[in-house]
Amino acid sequence: MQKEILTIRNLKTSFHTQDGTARAIDGLDFSVNHREIVGVVGESGCGKSVTALSIMRLVPNPPGEIESGEIYFEGEDLLRLSENEMRKIRGNKISMVFQEPMVYLNPVLTVGDQISEPIRLHQGLSRTQALDRVIELLRSVEIPSPEERIRNYPHQMSGGMRQRTMIAMAISCHPKLLIADEPTTALDVTIQLQILNVMRKLRDDLGTTIILITHNLGIVAEMVDKVIVMYAGKVVEDSPVKDLFEKPYHPYTTGLLKSIPRLDQKRRRLHIIPGNVPNILNLPDGCVFNDRCEQRLKRCLSEHPPLFEIGAQRFCRCWLYS
Amino acid sequence: MQGLHQSTNICDPGDPMNSDPLVRLEEVKKYFPIGGSFFRRNTAHVRAVDCVTLSISKGETLGLVGESGCGKTTLGRLILQIETLTDGKIYIEGKNIVTADRNEMRLLRRQMQIIFQDPYSSLNPRKTVAEIIGAPLVIQNIVRTRRERDEKVLELIMEVGLRSEHLYNYPHEFSGGQRQRIGIARALALKPKLIVCDEPVSALDVSVQAQVVNLLQDLQERFGLTYLFISHDLAVVEQISNRVAVMYLGRIVELAFSETIYQDPKHPYTKALISASPIPDPQVKKTPIVLEGDVPSPINPPEGCHFHPRCVKAFDSCKKGVPELIEVAKGHYVRCFLYL
């Protein structure tokens, strides 16, 4: 059963700054199927976090602005909803987990009260009913002795524990879609593994669809079904995870996969992608990757490539495949 | 000399292939006092580094891995004497630097430099590249005039892959990777023998990480540098290091050649660490070892082996005694009762 739960079409989100307009997302297209874990990968400034904020309609305005496009969630265009209607979706049907749990948790409220807030808001339970539900939730994200933990303040918890709390809060209303923006980047690897396992269980047990935003290709390989590779505000490759790692098409993806050190293979030297991630205020003409690309054609300098369909569910934004 | 009291004769985790150590640590300890106030004596200590004995050979890269709070950064800072140690000895080329006075220390500092993790906070935003990289040269009276300084700095920035027109730019004009190159050039300025690299690529983008790792390897070859490479990323450490030391709550729990540590890890913690490091290939199937709980607080670490509450193989002895670091194969050291 391949049902699309989220479809993004030609989304453009910009930030108007003193130095000019930064097109953080420039014509984004992708879709997410029901019960799927989709990985959005890319480096800093590629627009992966802005994608998440756009779906949640949390792009700070000003300076940010969703200029155009459509975001269909269960057949409904989120961008056409009123703020009130959107508020009923946020934290309820779509929720989000952020990178730095300490920044997003309120330091003067106990975690019990914080997690129960969306439950009381969206499901209208009383405080005691909600707290019982919180204990259940904390247990489901594997926090030991949750009855005592609900009285803790965020600073009394470790980083991994806080991230579990964030996840508990995010799943409190059984969201259909969970967006996790670098959920494990601030954590140690052994704790990262615990958190990823919790997320995988969410999908397997509750059927939650997950968009996992990360820069770590290792996590992508182990967790997701489908990968969206972003570069400078655009999708450059969209592929099932196995195919992508077996045969990446876009020169950026190829270079990226070759440049990461691997524990299971000793490489004498790492492959290098020359240059730097481009500044989105000052993008090259034509293909955004052309200044770093080893297989650059003449055409890449002037014409911007569309997303070509190359195989079954495989898309790549590169003139090599025209 | 047997028994619980560790003698330096028992175990010397040096490089068996190279008996010429540049740095040697003997039972190095660093306890940070906490909870003390003007009227109250310190009641507790954080045992950041707890009895570490270790040698780093000339020209080698020793990788130091561990999770946050395990003391890896403190160990690096102790070698540079940015922190004063609580107990123990540190030798650089056979000279005990702990007892060195101010003048001797100033000369010793030429031989050891550091590259920091965060290329944003480690460069003064109000100084130009020439001033930042030239600062150590000026402090050590190696250059006398501004022209001399700029000439030297120019050589250095070419060495790290920046261009001559960058000389009078300010840090904010550079990307993260370029800033890290500035930090590397500053560390190279005094032609040091040892560079402590404290998570030098952790803050960088994936595509830029490889550039900096390769640069560090090139510079090592050219100048015969010795690195202490501190990182939480096992894959990066394995790529660049000859030997790898794994730390857990202030103690070294395993030390081996970098191929060995991946192919034949002995300590249960090392095994868990390797299994938790994601491999960018969906075809590779691993049996994940999920550790229970969090890293315990170093203020009040568990008795006995620090790792026993999270260890799947823990038995009675682990709760009571602290296992010694023993050599299980040539150059492969493990601190675990399973191998005693």
What topology emerges from the helices and strands here?
The complex is a heterodimer of chains A (322) and B (340).
Chain A: E1 4-17, E2 20-33, E3 37-41, H1 48-56, E4 64-73, E5 76-77, H2 83-89, E6 94-97, H3 101-104, H4 111-123, H5 127-140, H6 146-149, H7 159-170, E7 177-181, H8 189-206, E8 209-214, H9 217-223, E9 226-231, E10 234-240, H10 241-246, H11 251-259, E11 308-311, E12 314-316
Parallel strand pairs in A: 3-8, 3-9, 6-7, 7-8
Antiparallel strand pairs in A: 1-2, 1-4, 4-5, 9-10, 10-12, 11-12
Helix pairs in contact in A: 4-5, 4-7, 5-7, 7-8
Chain B: E1 21-34, E2 44-57, E3 61-65, H1 72-79, E4 87-92, E5 95-96, H2 102-109, E6 112-115, H3 129-139, H4 146-159, H5 176-188, E7 194-198, H6 206-223, E8 226-231, H7 234-240, E9 243-248, E10 251-257, H8 258-263, H9 268-276, H10 316-320, E11 326-329, E12 332-334
Parallel strand pairs in B: 3-8, 3-9, 6-7, 7-8
Antiparallel strand pairs in B: 1-2, 1-4, 4-5, 9-10, 10-12, 11-12
Helix pairs in contact in B: 3-4, 3-5, 4-5, 5-6
